Every structure is written in C-alpha cells, then in structure tokens.
C-alpha cells in the first residue's frame, strides 16, 4: 500500500466509483440555500439547486472550507504516516486554495497542495493522473512536479444551454444574457491561466452547438493524452449526452471515456443542461 494519499476539493466531480477505487478522499465545499448550509454531495444535490432557483429565483451561495477545517482534514492522514497531495479548484474561482495552502504549512512538507487552475473534471483529470503516477510508484515530489507541468494542458471547457445562472451570478452582462436568449447563442466557456472566459459563440439548438464544439476540439487538439476523457454535464438531456459520447468515441482515441454529472458547486454557477468534453492535451 502506498504511503501517498490523493485528496481533493469536492469540485473535482469524480464519480463515487472513481473515488472509492482510487482511495481519493474529498474535502467538501459548502452550499448555502437561504438560511441553511449544506455539504456538497452529502446532503445537497444538483436537483435541490434547480428546485430552489425555480421556486425563489435565487442562486445559492458557496463557501470554501476554513484553514482550520483543512488542517483537521490533512491531520487524519499525516497522523497515519501518509504524505498528502491535495487538489483545489482554481484559486481564481474560490478561496479554497489559499486556506488549504495555509493549513499545509503546518505539516513540514507532508502535505502538498495543488492549485489545479481548473474546475469540475478538469480538476478531476489531474486528480486521476496523480493516482496513475502514484500507482506507477512515483514519489510525492515526482507526482507534484509532473502535475504542475500539466496544469495548463488541461482542456477545461463547456457549453451552457442558458446564460441565466451566469447572469444571475454576475458572470455575464445583461446585454450578453438577453442577446444570447434572443439569438439562441451558446458560448463556449474555456479556462486559461485558471480563469473562465468566453472563447467562441455557437448559434442554434444545443445539439448543433455540441456537434460544432466537439468538431472544434478535434481540430484544435490533434495531439492529446489518450488515457481518459470526461464527458461532464449538469443533468443534461440524455440525447445530448449520448450525442457527445458517440462523437468523442468516433473522433478521438481515448482508452476511457467517462460520463460524470457535475456536483452542486459547479451546477450553482452553470445551470441545467451544460455539457463539456474534458481531457489533457499535449
């Protein structure tokens, strides 16, 4: 058994099977609905977010764990003689990395904290890569160094069905929201240097947009890590998910294509029917 433990914020959106199989422990971020606070993936699910928004028109708030909570989380592993490599959602999307890094300073190098510069399964891809490297017998330092070299090679992108959640959350302008609604525009949201930005605009039905999106990925990334790919969505229509999976299988050459559903934190910002195809490029 390895003396290296891989842990992550719950924003990595990995499945329960992947977490259990790879011994990945999660630090749960919080979701606040009205006067109630819940733990992501424990006592709140995306359906609860949608219901609350439909009933109240209010988006939930999200909160990062405190330095003290991270300290307690890491201590359970270091007390057992383990070295921890922990993955945070991008520091430009949440304060969690700062709190985790502050906690890590108390453990004399036994806790290594990675600002993933990603979110959702973009973060999850790095978590899984770290597990692969651990299982190959790499040291904690070797894993950390390789992961840091891969951060900017992760394609973290997605296409939202609606800009309503981004608009309500202050992440797009009134003009952009109403223009997109009238013209049926679906932006391609990408990540660069840990920050989300609109890269391109697709027009028409979501099925057409997803086809164009995946064809664009094929053209842009002819060289990529073939180990795995994630098709991640926020409770998207089954036909849309199947379309994406079949196109990825036909046009790429991944060993593993995993479908995952975005958790409550990511859903809070993107809304229902958002879909992304995420993988590591070369």
Q: Could you explain the architecture of this structure?
A:
The protein is of the alpha/beta class and 282 residues long. It folds into 2 domains: 4-29 and 64-151, Dihydroxyacetone kinase, domain 1 (Rossmann fold, 3-Layer(aba) Sandwich); 156-280, Hypothetical Protein Tm841, Chain: A,domain 3, CATH 3.30.1180.10. Helix content is 41%, strand content 24%. The chain has 11 helices and 14 strands. It has helices at residues 16-22, 46-56, 67-78, 96-104, 120-135, 140-150, 164-168, 174-183, 206-220, 238-251, 264-270, and strands at 4-9, 25-27, 30-33, 36-39, 61-63, 83-88, 111-115, 154-155, 157-158, 185-192, 195-203, 229-233, 257-261, 275-280. The strands form 4 sheets. A 4-stranded parallel β-sheet has the order 2-1-6-7, sandwiched between helices. Strands 8-14-12-13 form a 4-stranded mixed β-sheet, with helices on both faces. Helix 2 (46-56) runs parallel beside helix 11, helix 3 (67-78) packs across helix 4 (96-104) and helix 9 (206-220) packs parallel to helix 10. The longest helix is centred in the middle third of the chain and has 16 residues, at 120-135. The relative contact order is 0.16.
């Amino acid at each position: 058994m390895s003396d290296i433990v891989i842990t992550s914020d719950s924003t990595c959106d990995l499945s329960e099977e992947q977490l259990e199989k790879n011994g990945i422990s999660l630090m749960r971020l919080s979701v606040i609905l009205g006067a109630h606070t819940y733990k992501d993936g424990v006592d709140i699910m995306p359906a609860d977010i949608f219901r609350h928004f439909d009933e109240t028109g209010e988006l939930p708030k999200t909160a990062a764990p405190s330095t003290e909570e991270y300290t307690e989380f890491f201590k359970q592993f270091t007390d057992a003689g383990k070295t921890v490599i922990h993955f945070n959602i991008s520091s430009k999307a949440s304060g969690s990395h700062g709190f985790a890094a502050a906690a890590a300073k108390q453990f004399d190098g036994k806790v290594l904290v990675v600002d993933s510069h990603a979110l959702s399964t973009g973060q999850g891809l790095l978590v899984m890569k770290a597990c692969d490297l651990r299982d190959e017998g790499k040291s904690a330092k070797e894993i950390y160094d390789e992961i840091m070299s891969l951060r900017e090679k992760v394609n973290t992108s997605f296409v939202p069905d609606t800009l309503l959640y981004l608009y309500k959350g202050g992440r797009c302008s009134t003009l952009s929201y109403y223009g997109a609604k009238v013209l049926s525009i679906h932006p391609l949201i990408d990540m660069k240097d840990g920050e989300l930005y609109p890269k391109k605009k697709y027009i028409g039905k979501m099925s057409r947009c997803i086809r164009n999106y995946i064809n664009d990925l094929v053209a842009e990334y002819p060289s990529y890590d073939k180990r795995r790919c994630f098709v991640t969505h926020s409770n998207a229509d089954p036909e849309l998910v199947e379309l994406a999976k079949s196109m990825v299988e036909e046009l790429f050459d991944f060993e593993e294509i995993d479908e995952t559903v975005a958790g409550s934190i990511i859903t809070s910002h993107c809304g229902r029917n958002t879909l992304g195809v995420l993988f590591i490029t070369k």
